[in-house]
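note to self — DONT lose this again. spent like an hour looking for the file last time. sequence + predicted structure for the chain T wanted, 237 res
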Amino acid sequence: MIDDKMAKMAVNTLKKYCNTSFKTCNKCAVKDACCMPCRVFGNMNEINDVGTFESWRKPSERPPKFDIRQKDSADFQKYINEIFLREAEKYGLPMNTANSIKWSTNGKIKVTFVDNDTTYVGVAKCHPNDAFNPEIGIKLAIERAAQVMHAMNDMNKYERTIPKAGEKWMHFKGHVYEIIGFGNHTERMELVVIYHEAGDCTYWVRPLEKFMSKVDHNKYPDVPYKWRFWKVSDAEQ
């Protein structure tokens, strides 16, 4: 059922459309519904107590997730620093005076850890529908910084470059897989590769160390390849 408010908004919407959306009546999408000459919709009186359908569709302004003034409170700083130091130590992140936490009113937290010339950054952002919890945000951001650190350390650990999202890698049994990305084992903090075969909805997860390992020639003596997986472009060279 169309109520009074919707009818008023229809009038305002037509008026705004008539006055702003085109220069001549010939370009009007609803000209056949206009029974009077010379921009009749544009000459209608606007109804002030309602807006248009356009304004009705626009989401209302959300209040800030985080009062940025809190970060200047000595008690809040102490609370956050305790969490920061505890979580950083838990993941083995470097402790440095250059380390930092940055806050945004939308609930975004960015942590930075500095180790000589290397920087590890982790970001966490509160979902629009969730209440902001600084402790959870810091923990997530630090965990993601630790994932970056482990990934960068792993790049130096192996004889070749680790996979990147979107790359195609071939298994020694002949299947080609697309790299989706990386994950972190919740218990062992072990970096895993997530990948799938084109056209297959099954996603596979394998520890990065296993993914980058050599073929076990004791188990597969007839396999001529060195690596368990290799990037397709490398195989084609």
